[in-house]
Design a protein that fits this description.
Elements lengths: L2 E10 L4 E2 L6 E2 L4 E9 L2 E7 L1 H9 L11 H8 L5 H9 L8
Antiparallel strand pairs: 1-4, 2-3, 4-5
Bound molecules: zinc ion (ZN).
Zinc ion binds next to α1.
Length: 99
Amino acid sequence: MSNTTLSEKTVVTRKPHDCWGCGESFPPGSKLRYIFSIWQDEPCSIYYCDLCDHLTDIDDCDEGYFEGDLAWTFAEYFGFDSVEEMRSAFDSGRRFECP
Ligand SMILES: [Zn+2]
């Protein structure tokens, strides 16, 4: 298993995209983190919303996540009942840290 990140940048989307971390769908014109990588010899491009981008920054556990699972894993971990609850805390300025 190998994963090589070739490019990573923040983009304003021209098409709707699902965030890989939370599975939520974001309309054109959203600001998303775009990551292009080679995953097991296949080119792979994924998008992260602000929240999930933040979550991947603090994720030093380096566990594998399935698509849409990242935000849920952290929501549970930080004691939120839903990803939406965590997102509104994040939107009002709360930042999360792994202990
Ligand atoms: Zn997300």
